[in-house]
Amino acid sequence: MSAKNESGPLVYVIQKHRASQLHYDFRLEWNGVLLSWAVPKGPSLDPQIKRLAMATEDHPIEYAKFEGVIPEGEYGGGTVMLWDEGTWEPQQEDVAAALRKGDLKFTLHGEKLKGSWVLVRTRGFGGKTGRSTWLLIKHRDQFASAEDLTQTRPRSVITNRLLADIAREGGGDVSKAATGDARSKSKALPSGAKRQIRRRRAID
Ligand code: MN
Asked: Would you say the C-alpha torsion 171, 149, 109, 140 has a positive or negative sign?
């Protein structure tokens, strides 16, 4: 089945969003809207790492171009960075059925994310909100990697700005945005490795 619709290839974007919590909005164009999931930790290229992805409301296609500041007090108030963009192709013929089943396999052609991925619906969490919980997982292929792109490539794919730059230029909350740029301390080494190093130092 063709992965194209009448208007061309299907849009894929990730918007890094420093709202009340930092998260990465993962969006896939389908049936004239952007299907959307909020991924708190962002995507991982490591097939062993499953990233929580909370289904959120569909967004209009035009929103895929947005980078800037959402005023505080409005829904999603904070700073939005276009972190990755490109196109996607479903790997299944019947996307509607795959979404209903909660097992969508697809290929990304982004600037940062490439290759084969899956979104799998799971249980638990979000019951009260009525929003489903999924896991975003990289399939094993030549694009799988231990590299943490959220740390190694933190900038906007269209303007090369950090969140703090976008906030500053958009009249937003710069210090709040900057917390979304900060390197996560726990990412540098797995905690087990840190413990081992500490132990070794204690012995030394
Ligand atoms: Mn968001």
From this structure: negative
Query: Could you tell me the residue ranges of all domains in the chain?
Result: 10-203
Closest CA to 86 of 14, 184, 12: 12
- 76 Cα: distance to centroid of ligand 1 (angstroms): 6
pLDDT tens-digit readout, 59-104:
999 999 999 999 999 989 999 999 999 999 999 999 999 999 999 9
Contacts 24+ apart (CB under 8 A), 21-27: 22/179, 22/180, 24/83, 24/150, 25/56, 26/53, 26/136, 27/59, 27/63, 27/64
Q: Tell me what pLDDT residue 128 has.
A: 58
Ligand 1 centroid distance, CA of 23 (Å): 6
What's the gap in Å between 137 CA and the centre of ligand 1? 20
- Ligand 1 is an ion; residues with CB less than 5 A from it: 17, 25
**192 CA distance to ligand 1 centroid (A)?**
32
Q: How far is the CA of 136 from the centre of ligand 1 (A)?
A: 16
The string of pLDDT tens digits covering residues 102-130 is: 999 999 999 999 999 999 999 755 555 66
pTM equals 0.85
The rounded Å distance from CA 58 to ligand 1 centre is: 11
Answer whether residue 1 shows pLDDT above 50.
no
